[in-house]
DNA sequence: AGACACGATTTCGTATACGATGCACGACCA
DNA sequence: TGGTCGTGCATCGTATACGAAATCGTGTCT
């Protein structure tokens, strides 16, 4: 009944493979390991003070999730997301996240809605600021608040994963296009109204989806057209 | 410039980890390893004439994909899909497959449509038969024909994966409910008509989604209600 | 008879070792 | 001088080995 290792908070409870997985993944998500970064087994093993075996397993897992690419006898590197893949991923997100939000809408507490509105106000306040990263983070949080209560865990997982796959690139959406942020905030308002009015699920879903599609096309036209 | 191992067709080109992955996965998909089957490292290693290391990596990969579950210091087993997970997965499929079908509909060749109609006729002809497995396979093929040309590979991948995750259970949909198969065939016809008439993508999507939802609710009510 | 404790066995987790592969650099030849 | 071939190093791929955890069976005590 005694805790296995009192000194180590809870990390020791995980296998080294899992530790490696979590750590590498954290580095990727945080951006410390940018796209294309080479994941050399021995280096990682040294950094984490373990042998290469758990590292290899972690990398396998990350490969299966699409966060890293892998080439036989060459090695792994953090996945690059080119414009095409970006579009594909965003299309997937527009579909799955909207469905998740619709499913969640009936499970949102008044508290959730209040939180969402508050986040959106903070977004509105910060639209002019030169802190794109923070705004993008807020935007993510806004949407996560709305789809979080989705009772289908599988759907939630897909949404999360897809965002993670985009890596650092996911921050280019909200702020990349000059006038877009303000429009987004307005669309957020409308979405909240719909949910609060208990609009049909299809309408909620459609609202989220078109919100995403709008943002994506705005982004694409501004980068490609310019 | 010489082929590495003339005797071995092409399997030798893959790493043992990959061989193990493919093989185990094949067993699971084919049903040889049913839900709950214990994947013991040494056994698999012996069967495939390799050490346990590649096996472990393969299992990691399969775990990440959700085909097997894993418990530390206990081992891996083929994932069980209970009724709840089944519902969740089918809900995901209804969302993603319908989107994929809609996206594919503009890329379908007359040939694809002909093929789909032909498959549906074979389905119609076999509705009464006592070969549920074959019918289910045909049903899968029908839908695959329609979403296959979807230009978004990521979306396709998600659909495929989700079906695979259901494993053997995916065969219980089409034939489990007595009257359902005939209805499905009719809905297939309607779907083909919509596509051929170049109906708006939303209508195509909605048709596929409701088709899936209908099948699911029919299945759930017949199993739970009875 | 039933429950608990303890030991044997199975199986997993990780380290280490060594062969295989790819890549980069430099030498050699035309 | 340019290109090609060979050599060495970095890194990956897999096998083997050993310690650790869990499970199962057995014996004992109540």
Short descriptors:
Arc Repressor Mutant, subunit A; DNA-binding; Four Helix Bundle (Hemerythrin (Met), subunit A); disordered N terminus; mainly alpha; homodimer
Assembly context of the chains: homodimer
What coarse outline of chain A follows from CA principal-axis ratios? globular
In helices, the fraction of residues of chain A equals: 55-70%
Biggest interface pair, counts: A-B, 25 and 25 residues
- Report the mean per-residue pLDDT of chain A as an integer: 90
Structural domains of chain A: how many: 2
The helix-strand sequence of chain A is HEHHEEHHHHHHH
Widest sheet of chain A: strand order? 1-3-2
SS strand fraction of chain A: under 5%
What is the top-level CATH class of the largest domain in chain A?
A: Mainly Alpha
Q: What Rg of chain A is obtained from the alpha carbons, in whole angstroms? A: 20 Å
The fold-level CATH name of the largest domain in chain A is Four Helix Bundle (Hemerythrin (Met), subunit A)
Largest sheet geometry of chain A: 3 strands, antiparallel
Number of helices of chain A: 10
| CATH superfamily label of the largest domain in chain A | GntR ligand-binding domain-like
The appropriate CATH architecture of the largest domain in chain A is Up-down Bundle
Number of strands of chain A: 3
Tell me the span between the first and last alpha carbons of chain A. Answer: 65 Å
Task: Give the low-pLDDT segments of chain A.
Answer: 1-11
Q: Structural class given helices, strands, pairing of chain A?
A: mainly alpha
């Amino acid at each position: 009944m005694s805790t296995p290792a009192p000194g180590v908070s809870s990390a020791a409870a995980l296998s080294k493979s899992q530790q490696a997985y979590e750590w590498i993944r954290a580095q990727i998500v945080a951006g410390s390991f940018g796209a294309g970064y080479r994941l050399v087994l021995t280096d990682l093993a040294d950094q984490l003070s373990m042998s290469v075996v758990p590292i290899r397993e972690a990398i396998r897992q990350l490969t299966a999730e699409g966060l890293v690419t892998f080439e036989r006898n060459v090695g792994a590197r953090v996945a690059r997301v080119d414009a095409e893949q970006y579009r594909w991923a965003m299309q997937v997100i527009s579909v799955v996240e909207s469905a998740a939000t619709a499913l969640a809408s009936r499970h949102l507490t008044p508290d959730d809605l209040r939180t969402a509105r508050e986040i959106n106000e903070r977004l509105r306040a910060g639209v002019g600021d030169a802190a794109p990263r923070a705004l993008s983070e807020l935007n993510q949080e806004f949407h996560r608040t709305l789809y979080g209560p989705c009772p289908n865990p599988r759907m939630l997982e897909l949404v999360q994963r897809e965002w993670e796959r985009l890596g650092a690139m996911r921050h280019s959406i909200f702020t990349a296009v000059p006038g877009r942020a303000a429009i987004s905030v307005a669309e957020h308002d409308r979405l909240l109204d719909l949910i609060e009015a208990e609009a049909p699920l299809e309408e909620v879903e459609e609202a989220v989806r078109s919100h995403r599609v709008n943002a994506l096309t705005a982004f694409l036209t501004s980068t490609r057209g310019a």
